[in-house]
Amino acid sequence: MGYGRPSSGPGRGAGCNPLAEQPHKPDVNWTHFHSLESSWRTRLLGELSRRFAIPRCAELFFSTFPDWTQCSFLEVGAGNGEIALRIRALGGAHPPNYLVSEQFREGVHWLRSQGLSTCAADALHLPFKDRAFDAVVVFDVMHHVSDPYQMARELVRVSRGRLLLTESNGLSLGRKLMELTPGHRAAGERSYTPWQYRDFFAATGYRLVRCAIHPFLFPVPGGVPPLLLEPLIRFNRAIEKTPFFRWQCSNVFIQVEVAR
Fold first, then answer.
1. Dihedral, CA of residue 7, residue 8, residue 13 and residue 15, to nearest 10
2. How far apart are the C-alpha atoms of 128 and 107, rounded to whole Å?
3. Mean pLDDT, to the nearest integer, of 181-191?
4. Whole-prediction pTM value?
5. Residue 162, class by beta-carbon neighbours within 10 Å (0-12 exposed, 13-18 middle, 19+ buried)?
6. Average confidence score pLDDT of the chain
7. Which alpha helices (H) appear in the chain, and where do they start and end?
């Protein structure tokens, strides 16, 4: 499918540093949260992750980048690859030129074992040239890093001005309460408000053309009985469009354009 050989794709042409096989040691030991079979997201959400959260992220990718077949992409912090694999599956015969990165060694091995073109990289110090990719996508990473301003600068630097992120919603009471639990605290999670996310990108030094932020995903931690799964999915679709209450969704998706 032209999508998964580590020796091809943007990994070398974009300036991926071959010495980045041993990236900086992360603050969080992600092997405690991710596995090849199940990501931290899926462990938290259960079947709602597979049936709604992952497909919704893939939908956002295709709706944000209608010209995806002509673009090169970097996904930062791909975890065990579940969203990248869904994007690849939906891409059919014409998948995008799509490179994934991960910081921890086991994650790099997991991603490569699934045929994904992969580079080891720290989200705060991406080993790529300026403007290496048409667009950069990030699913649930920024709220884990120590310096979101630095991460925003790096995302903009290696892109040609187009970004898609999904992130934790700092306006959600449920989300803030979840961050007080031992598991979320161990994962270093810190959610931010839409104004803070916008500020991260406004402070990159480039002119911010667009920063659209929309809420999505109203989870039930730990999963729900099978009979309640379809109603919960329908509820999730509806609450995204419900005034006021939609801002109690636990996540937001962020579409950014900067002048490069």
1. -40
2. 19
3. 71
4. 0.85
5. buried
6. 85
7. 10-13, 40-45, 47-48, 54-64, 82-90, 105-113, 148-158, 173-178, 182-186, 194-202, 226-239
Question: What's the CATH class of domain 10-258?
Answer: alpha beta
Chain centre distance of CA 20: 21
Q: Tens of pLDDT along 119-149?
A: 999 999 999 999 999 999 999 999 999 999 9
Sign, CA torsion 108/39/76/196: negative
In sequence order, what are the residues at sequence separation of 6 or more whose Cβ sits closer than 8 angstroms to the Cβ of residue 199? none
For residue 49, give Cα distances in angstroms to 52, 57, 86, 154, 187: 6, 10, 12, 28, 18
Count CB neighbours of 35 within 10 A: 16
pLDDT in the model for residue 8: 35
Residue type at position 141: V
CA distance 101 to 14: 13
Q: How is residue 179 written in tokens?
A: 């961050």
